[in-house]
Specification:
Blueprint: H1 4-15, H2 21-62, E1 66-74, H3 77-85, E2 90-105, E3 108-117, H4 119-122, H5 128-131, E4 132-135, E5 146-150, H6 151-157, E6 164-175, E7 178-192, H7 197-200, E8 203-207, H8 208-214, E9 221-228, H9 234-244, E10 250-253, H10 254-257, H11 259-297, H12 299-307, H13 312-343, H14 345-356, H15 363-366, H16 377-394, H17 396-403, H18 407-411
Parallel strand pairs: 3-8, 5-7
Antiparallel strand pairs: 1-9, 1-10, 2-3, 2-6, 2-9, 4-7, 5-8, 6-7
């Protein structure tokens, strides 16, 4: 294929002004089709990567990379805390107590996960302080019975800073009228907003000392949350920590806690890639039709080359070079256009919104006002190689057909 004669003649056919301008038009359409397919793939996958990254950061801003728990509570949690902090991959650790509860106010009720935290330690494992829209994390003090609520949860309960909410715990009290759940009034001292309904509508924070009292844990902690240097190493590090603690505690990582959600995101991206690759496939089929017409148009030229001693393989390589050149040009143009567009999606979409007075992403629904984009080199390389390989494969049949041309038959009427 890379013989000088094959390359020269193949490229000469690519740039020559043919008598049949329709063939040139089809060649251009094939090149543009491949380019547009690659641009669409890179931009769409970059936007999906941006959304996935945004969602992942928001989830892991409140959740932890790994969590160490014990159903009976961790009595000597300070010692365990020192032990896990000594692990090189761990950059932060904080104790917590988690309560599945019901919050009530003036006849309004809503289920919520209430997490007891130590404000001075929580900054190591979460972005709660950065997500506060009212009040402060430092308002959570031992025996203060203060609570920080998600913005939507506060709206559902119709409470604001300084209002009271009643927290109903799963712990039971024996009373003269029977067994009743434990109730405790808390003062709302803060409101946060993450941008994820799971947290904004279903989570709250109190001081760990108050949570331990409600759950009758004494001085024990319910578990320890960990932040790792590289969150992608979480499964491996979690297993190492579990073995290092002799299996006394259960250690789960974020890939287990949100397995179904992130698996759905991966499946969505995979299916979208397959669907959009059909655009490139259509363009590749256009290369087939282009080369078939070129072969028909160049029958006499092929016959002359064969008469001068060119082998069938050499003739086949000429048309493979021509088709590959079309595919390569479309691929390179697609890479440049896709990467540039992927890097500038946000300002382009903002300009369109201003020009037509529309808003594609309503912050009240999506919590994201701008279209995120994350161009990943691995996606660009995979798309480019896939498109180029498809273009090369599309040249095989027309080139093989050209190599089978009979010189005597082709020159009979010339």
């Amino acid at each position: 294929m890379f013989h000088p004669l094959s390359v020269f003649v193949g490229l000469r056919y690519t740039r020559a002004k043919r008598r049949n301008h329709f063939i040139s038009f089809i060649s251009m359409i094939s090149m543009l089709g491949i380019m547009l397919g690659i641009v669409a793939l890179i931009v769409v996958l970059s936007v999906m990567n941006g959304f996935h990254k945004e969602i992942q950061e928001r989830i892991l801003g409140m959740a932890s990379h790994a969590t160490l728990t014990d159903p009976n509570g961790i009595e000597d949690w300070n010692a365990v805390l020192k032990q896990v902090r000594a692990v090189p991959e761990v950059v932060g650790a904080a104790p917590f107590v988690e309560i599945e509860s019901m919050l009530m106010n003036a006849g309004r009720t809503n289920g919520a996960i209430i997490r007891g935290i130590l404000p001075e330690e929580e900054d190591q494992v979460s972005d709660l302080r950065e997500d506060m829209v009212a009040g402060s994390v430092d308002d959570l003090v031992p025996d203060g019975f203060n609570i920080i609520l998600g913005r939507e949860l506060a709206a559902v309960l119709d409470v604001g800073i300084g209002d009271k909410v009643t927290l109903v715990t799963p712990q039971l009290n024996a009373t003269p009228v029977g067994v009743m759940p434990r109730l405790k009034a808390f003062t709302v001292t803060g409101i946060f907003e993450v941008g994820m309904a799971d947290y904004d509508r279903g989570a709250g924070f109190i001081h760990m000392h108050d949570a331990a009292k409600l759950m009758r844990l004494g001085g024990a902690a319910g578990g320890i949350r960990l932040k790792l240097e590289d969150m992608w190493d979480a499964p491996l590090v979690a297993r190492e920590i579990e073995y290092g603690l002799d299996g006394l505690y259960r250690v789960t990582d974020w890939t287990q806690m949100h397995r179904n959600f992130f698996a759905a995101l991966r499946t969505e991206k995979r299916m979208m890639t397959i669907i959009l690759f059909l655009i490139v496939a259509v363009a590749a089929f256009n290369i087939v039709s282009t080369l078939v017409m070129v072969v028909t148009d160049k029958r006499a030229d092929i016959a002359v080359l064969r008469t001068l001693g060119a082998s069938p393989g050499r003739v086949m390589a000429i048309f493979m070079v021509q088709g590959t050149a079309i595919g390569l040009a479309g691929t390179l143009l697609g890479i440049v256009g896709g990467v540039l567009l992927g890097w500038n999606v946000e300002p382009i979409v903002a300009a369109i919104e201003r020009a037509f007075s529309v808003h594609f992403l309503d912050p009240s629904i999506y919590y994201i006002s701008a279209l995120p984009s994350d161009v990943q080199a691995s996606d660009v390389v995979a798309i480019s190689l896939g498109a180029f390989l498809m273009s090369v494969l599309a040249t095989l049949y027309p080139a093989w057909r050209a190599s089978r041309t009979d010189p005597a038959e082709a020159l009979r009427y010339e």
